[in-house]
Amino acid sequence: MIGTVVYQNSKSSCDIANKVVVQALVLSTSARKNFTVGEVVNLMSVDTQRIMDYVQMVNLLWSAPLQIVIAIYLLWQQLGIATLGGLGVMILMIPLNGVISVFIRNFQ
């Protein structure tokens, strides 16, 4: 199943880059003056990757909360009240993750 996802992701990325190249080739001479070769290459590489990253993140928006709820339920079935300790750690890690990400962003 993972192989299928990787294959579809690669195929989609190639399809998007192909569309950009085709559009660049059919531009009129006057329109080509508006775009440099570097801008077209940027569209093919960086922007294509951003689109693919967006597609993956949209999938996480619904699946991550569902996975967390299922994991907490299964932990509750096995551990009972001790699950609340793990849940507390998860909740405390949310602001810590935010602080670390701000630090890394400023450090770069």
Question: Quick recap of the structure?
Answer:
This protein is an all-alpha fold and 108 residues long. It is built from 4 helices and no strands.
Sequence-ordered SSE layout with sheet pairings:
Elements: H1 2-25, H2 29-32, H3 37-79, H4 83-107
Organism: Nephila pilipes
GO cellular component, one term: membrane
Subcellular location: Endomembrane system
Q: How many E strands?
A: 0
Alpha-carbon distance between the two ends: 36 Å
Average pLDDT: 82
Strand content: under 5%
Helix/strand-derived class? Answer: mainly alpha
- Shape, please? elongated
Q: Which bin fits the share of residues in helices?
A: over 70%
Gyration radius, to the nearest Å?
22 Å
Q: How many separate helices?
A: 4
Tell me about the largest β-sheet.
none
SSE succession = HHHH
* Uncertain residue ranges: none
